[in-house]
Automatic annotation (TrEMBL):
Gene3D superfamilies: 1.10.1580.10, P-loop containing nucleotide triphosphate hydrolases (3.40.50.300). Keywords: Cytoplasm, GTP-binding, Hydrolase, Nucleotide-binding. SUPFAM superfamilies: P-loop containing nucleoside triphosphate hydrolases (SSF52540). Residues 531-542 have a biased composition (Basic residues). This is CP-type G domain-containing protein. GO terms for cellular component: cytosol. It comes from Rhynchospora breviuscula. Residues 459-556 are annotated as: Disordered. InterPro entries: G_CP_dom (IPR030378), GNL1-like (IPR043358), GTP-bd (IPR006073), GTP-bd_ortho_bundle_sf (IPR023179), P-loop_NTPase (IPR027417). The keyword rRNA processing does not apply.
């Protein structure tokens, strides 16, 4: 008997030892993969397909071995360059719109492949890589269509993995968008993906930076969201942080009446937002548990999780900091600094989760627009005139003149009188007034462009989009005060303001030389801190000339799909 017992114990010990060995091996493997993945998380929006294949040859071989690349050459999506070459600009734009509408549904957020807790770490890793490469391959195929321009998007799987985790663990998903152009930052497919994970999950649009939106425009957006069944809240992380310090940033209008009963146009305060988020998340949990509620005897409260997702720079970290009431995550105006998701326990009932900013794939914007909207870093700007043209198209001429204390040349008699200034005119006027001269002796357009884009992103240059189907005539005659009691001070002039005649003289002048005089005069008068650039000016350089007749290498004015907001009309209707 004793021998049998010993044998059984021996077998038991052997089994335990085997289990432990397996556990240690699995842990080691997991650690190896973990270490391998622990390289600093970086956002890859600029990487191209070739780079991806060279850099990640292991992933490429995975893709090839799966046979997934076998149909990569099929051309059912293609409109060839030859077909497109015969079209007029208008026809091309129309065809592009049609193609974009046709393939809009192909712009998906990458899905995490199905998984379960029995899978090994390697298996999970390989499946995720495979699914991700498949997703990238589909997008690459879209790019083969000459009519479709896919803007840079996040190509680092590890960043998408962060999103998958946040989506899976959150009951309520808060999509943070910039109030000045909510639909640029909204990703409807993400809402769909959340529902695929769990049909009860809800997505709420947190319309941040509402302090930068005039009240009447906020009201229009509220009506639009309400009519289209979009769950939304207006919010200003900046105002909420100011409130924590006892300051008031937003002066709300006394009456916020609307034709739609129950319309919520308020900008929420910190406590209100926390309460509402918790209530929304609890309603998700309640809906999820409802079918089995008959078997549940207790009504005890569960901890709910609210995940914050969105493009870089929309204010996710600022929002979390304002909600937590202390600085817990880094905030800067450089997009893409949050690299890993963070979990913050607010109370026994509420947990917040901050996801790194993600650039979702889209057709609808240009790279310049993405720089101007703050989702691609200004440092990566290669064509500054194109990016500044976005600013020139969207900020009223009078606002640019007032805020920068500059004079922009009037449109020529043969041009539409309401055309926006060209980026060239704007950059030149700015450089002249500030004395920004590059070492070449030419206006330092890059420096000017960087400053203007920063001002545009930070809200110093006012701009906003109207809800779809609405134009400025819908907002005229209404109070459009921004609600913010922060009055924009015009920038101090660096010297006396050149009058229009002086500027027009400059157009006719060999302005490299004359420009340098203007520059020096201004520098001496005010901006003592600026370096004196002593390099001789190029006499015959024509890059200072104003005009868009094409003779000076200036790009034609770009027509953007979204109509520029007529700020002049809005300003005239009472905006400060
Ligand atoms: N005017 C205004 N500016 C804001 C507000 N919230 C955030 N900002 C500014 O927007 C910029 C980006 O804010 P972050 O909180 O770092 O944005 P994020 O979404 O966490 O960015 P990533 O880490 O890149 O994903 C910073 O310059 C903030 O000061 C707001 O409510 N109003």
């Amino acid at each position: 008997m004793g021998g049998k017992k010993e044998r059984t114990e021996g077998l038991g010990r052997a089994l335990i030892r085997q289990q432990n060995r397996k556990a240690i091996e699995a842990k080691e493997k997991g650690r190896a993969i973990h270490l391998q993945n622990r390289k600093v998380l970086e956002s890859y929006t600029e990487i191209n397909e070739i780079d991806a294949i060279i850099d990640k040859s292991d992933e490429a071989s995975l893709l090839l071995s799966s046979g997934a690349a076998s149909d990569a050459g099929s051309s059912d999506l293609l409109i060839s360059a030859d077909d497109a070459g015969d079209m007029t600009a208008e026809e091309r734009r129309q065809a592009q719109k049609e193609e974009e509408a046709l393939y809009a549904s192909n712009l998906k957020v990458p899905r995490r492949p199905p998984w379960n807790s029995n899978m090994s770490v390697e298996e999970l890793d390989a499946n995720e890589k495979q699914a991700f490469l498949e997703w990238r391959r589909k997008l690459a195929r879209l790019e083969e269509n000459d009519m479709l321009v896919l803007t840079p998007y996040e190509k680092n799987l590890d960043i998408w993995r962060q999103l998958w985790r946040v989506l899976e663990r959150s009951d309520l998903i808060v999509m943070v968008v910039d109030a000045r152009d909510p639909f640029f930052y909204r990703c409807p497919d993400l809402e769909e993906y959340a529902l695929e994970i769990d049909e009860h999950k809800r997505t709420l649009l947190l319309v941040n930076k509402a302090d930068l939106l005039p009240f009447n425009i906020r009201k229009k957006w509220a009506e639009y969201f309400h009519q289209h069944d979009i769950l939304f809240i207006f919010w200003s992380a900046k105002a909420a942080s100011a409130a924590i310090e006892g300051k008031t940033l937003i002066q709300e209008p006394e009456s916020q009446e609307s034709d739609l009963p129950g319309l919520d146009t308020r900008i929420y305060g910190r406590d209100e937002l926390l309460t509402r988020l918790q209530a929304e998340a609890e309603s998700v949990v309640a809906a999820r548990e409802r079918p089995s509620s008959s078997s549940s005897t207790t009504s005890e409260k569960r901890q709910v999780t609210v995940g914050f997702v969105g493009y870089p720079n929309v204010g996710k970290s600022s929002t979390i900091n304002a909600l937590v009431g202390a600085k817990r995550t880094g905030v800067t105006s450089t997009p893409g600094k949050t690299k890993h998701f963070q979990t913050l326990i607010i109370s026994d009932e509420l947990v917040l989760c901050d996801c790194p900013g993600l650039v979702f794939p889209s057709f609808s914007s240009s790279r310049h627009e993405m720089v101007a909207c703050g989702v691609l870093p200004i440092d990566r700007m290669t064509q500054h005139r194109e990016a500044v043209q976005v600013v020139a198209n969207r900020v009223a001429r009078c606002e640019l003149e007032r805020i920068y204390n500059i004079r922009l040349p009037n449109p020529k008699p043969y041009e539409p009188q309401n055309r926006p200034p060209t980026s060239y005119e704007l950059l030149r006027a700015y450089c002249v007034s500030r004395g920004h001269v590059a070492s070449s002796g030419l206006p330092d357009e890059t420096r000017a462009a960087r400053q203007m884009l920063k001002d545009y992103i930070d809200g110093k240059l006012p701009h906003f989009e109207l809800p779809p189907g609405m134009d400025t005539s819908d907002t005229e005659g209404e109070d459009s005060g921004s609600g913010s009691d922060e009055e924009e001070e015009p920038e101090p002039s660096s010297g006396s303001l050149p009058d229009r005649r002086e500027l027009e003289d400059l157009e006719e002048f060999d302005s490299g030389l004359k420009g340098s005089k203007v520059v020096k005069k201004r520098e001496n008068k005010k901006e003592g801190s600026h370096k004196q650039h002593k390099k001789p000016q190029r006499k015959k350089d024509r890059s200072w000339r104003v005009g868009n007749d094409g003779g000076d290498g200036m790009p034609a004015i770009r027509v953007f799909q979204k109509p520029a907001v007529n700020f002049a009309a809005i300003s005239a209707s009472g905006r400060g």
